[in-house]
């Protein structure tokens, strides 16, 4: 467990969140969070019922900082671009990749697909080099 995670656990526990909620937000096991809380004297009961159940929307998904939401706008999920990129880099399996394009290689004629580039011409760097630096032999 990193130092960052320990401070996040302490903050969330002091805000009245339970072991399961903290564990799911930080991607840790419930037992790991519970044992940390017990060894650092963060035991006790959950906060009274005046704490809303959807409190998870008020914390950054990555670092657990509180988020300030602007009324009438979409709810924030991350406190900064760095946290947003860190979260998506750690959860690549959840990326919905839709930008696949089908092409035919200019050099070898092979059919291939590319992600995110609609103007691709070659299936590989080798084909690009063959076409780009093709020299005619003169005698």
From TrEMBL:
<protein>
    <recommendedName>
        <fullName>RNA polymerase subunit sigma-70</fullName>
    </recommendedName>
</protein>
